[in-house]
Amino acid sequence: MKSIKPGRGPSAMNAIGSVVAVVFGVIWTAMAAAMGAPFFFLLFGVVFIMMGIVQAVYHFTNAAGKDRFSQWDITENGEESDPMHGYFGQQQGPAEPKTGDGFCPYCGTAVEGGYRFCPKCGRELP
After folding, report:
1. Average confidence (pLDDT) over 93-120
2. What is the C-alpha to C-alpha distance for residues 46 and 27, in angstroms, rounded to an integer?
3. Which helix (H) or strand (E) holds 5?
4. Contact (CB, 8 A) for 97 and 32
5. DSSP assigned state of 96
């Protein structure tokens, strides 16, 4: 089964953007406190900081973690597992690819002799 996951590059960029948002929230909160702004301006800055921290952790985990949450990148069974499978009672690890003469070991499609690449998944055959 194919799984769609966020690319590591976009996740890393989103993590950096979230850190920038946290810095903005800190500056906002400090400036609002220094100017004696009403309480809701300070509260806005604190909420902004908390949201930025949560986003930074989420995106950094997707960028650096082995098990990423599904969203954009298409991967095959043998490449990465999908952590969402554990929440729905499905198999956590990658499934064993089908093997044998005349079959692609990655997707299980019947392959005639002489092919270098699988006609379905496009991966190089052993």
Report:
1. 69
2. 10
3. strand 3-5
4. no
5. P
By three-state DSSP, how is residue 83 classified?
A: coil
Q: What element of type H or E holds 87?
A: helix 84-87
Distance of CA 34 to the CA centre of its chain: 39
**How far apart, in whole angstroms, are the C-alpha atoms of residue 1 and residue 45?**
43
Angle, vertex CA 22, rays to CA 18 and CA 23, nearest 5 = 120
Q: Is 11 exposed, middle or buried (0-12, 13-18, 19+ CB in 10 A)?
A: buried
DSSP-H helix ranges across 6-81: 8-34, 39-64
List pLDDT tens digits, range 38-85.
Answer: 999 999 999 999 999 999 998 888 777 766 665 555 556 655 565 555
Phi/psi of residue 3, nearest 5 degrees: -130, 140
Share above pLDDT 70 across residues of the chain, in percent, rounded to a whole number: 66
C-alpha to C-alpha distance for 109 and 98, rounded to whole angstroms: 9
